[in-house]
Amino acid sequence: MSKATGLLAGILAGAAAVVAFKSLPKEKQDELKSKAQQAGETLREKAYDAAYVAADMASDVTEKAKATTSDLKDKAQDKYGDQIDNVTDKVKDVTDQATPYVEKAKDMATPYVDKAQDVIVDLRNKFVNEDIELTQDDVELESALKDLKEDAQSAKDDVVDEVSEAADKVAKPTTDDAESK
């Protein structure tokens, strides 16, 4: 059926129902109206009940999930708390031991960086006094200085990485340690 035919059939069926309803005696019409109202109220009450039951179930599931999560968190802390504390202490110790080496690397690189900066300033002053314009194409000292800074930073980062790797190796419990706990 096409949409128009379906619409027409619906209108005709509705009109036939109204005519049939109006042709009933007044008492029968009142009885049908009463039954329709009761069915509507019953349906509405059941819909409300279903909504409340669903909300209660969702609340219960949420509470159970929170309780389970909290319980699991507590169990994990109880089971692995000491190991986590030990690893944290070892990492802190290794970091404290590595700090002087990092500072030493910085101190070693600083004079070279300062000297390179002084050379650039001196060259600029010399070229300014001789009316020669210093450009990036003529002198690549600034890029060399940047490279030197990057090398110093890279060396520092390498030392930090090596210290972190050593801390990881020290912090990893061996299978004997894990079995004893």
From TrEMBL:
Chain intervals with Basic and acidic residues compositional bias: 166-181
Region (Disordered): 150-181
Alphabetical list of SUPFAM superfamilies matching this protein: Apolipoprotein A-I (SSF58113)
Protein name: YtxH domain-containing protein
